[in-house]
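sorry for the late reply, my laptop died twice this morning and i had to redo everyting from scratch. anyway the thing you sent over, i finally got around to it. pasting the sequence first so we're on the same page, its 368 residues, then the predicted structure underneath. double check i copied it right bc i was rushing
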Amino acid sequence: MTIKNVKLGIVHRVLTDYRVPFIDLLADRFPGGVQVAAGEARPEEQIISGKPQKAGLFILQNIHLMKNGLYLCHQRGLIDWLEKFDPDVLIMEANPRYLATPQTVRWMHQRRRPVIGWGLGIPPASSGLRTGLRLTFLQQFDAMLAYSRKGRQEYISAGIPAEKVFLASNAAAFKPKGSIPEHRSNFDKSPAVVLFVGRLQDRKRVDLLLEACARLDESIKPRVIIVGDGPERRSLEALAGRIYPQAEFTGDKRGDDLSDLFRQADLFVLPGTGGLALQQALSFALPAIAAEGDGTQADLVRPENGWLVTPGNLDSLVNALQTALQDPSALVLKGRESFRIVSDEVNLECMADAFEQAVGFVLRKIVR
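ok and here's the structure:
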């Protein structure tokens, strides 16, 4: 069987709207057919679901369970979907909290069909028993796809052979097209523009950005543009009014309006978790400051194009901003490296390449 003939099944807990372009790209890469099985998120998660245009979508029933403060999810309907779609290869999230995973893997393996796990990696376990349980869970997969270099190394350190672990750096945008955007190399005529783009909720820590800017030297205090909406907007506007009136709240922006703001900016800052706009910012040749998280940030933000800061640490963010805003010409150079990273290393096309490599690997193992 060749890759082009493969029927590829993908299992997600929730198919988010930002993941849809990637799924449709996979449908182009695997003309034999791609179908996603996914359920709905909990309302309090405020996750926006998406629907692919080129791939199929099968709706599962997600049963959300909480046990001793631990979230678990059972996806009802997976076996029905497998019997209907009958995939040749299955890719599913490698999360032990998803209770239907072992049954799903058994169904595939009973038919001599491979299953690829897809995940963030695993942090060091607090006990040998926990390490053993994690490894047992991971060993049921025929190969692994890791969201980041850090995640890939964690899988290997846990005992998964390196040849079975493929790096698919988490991406949300295609390779940038056209020439590299130009940015100014001095702030003589007007202050630097610092940009944040994202949903205004507590975990984004926009409050930390405002507090950090308020502590900067007067000579380098930037104009701060905060793009997005969400439950924290009113409280953030009130905070800005008290400590940093230079901040501007634009509300939600899309398309050309958002692109114009990226072109105006001199520095992109992601002070909290998440942040799909980070890759988009880099495609506009912006240097970035980002809080360290699950490892995906480190694939995008390096000393050559920005600064990683300690999550929740005000001093760390202040120091990074102070260093960045004192040297505008260095920001331009870092921005050029940002553009190179998303052009050459972290984009949807490179991510799809890794998926193709993983599928080719497991098919060769089955043939043998």
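Residues 348-367 form the longest helix (20 residues).
thats about all i looked at so far, will dig more tmrw
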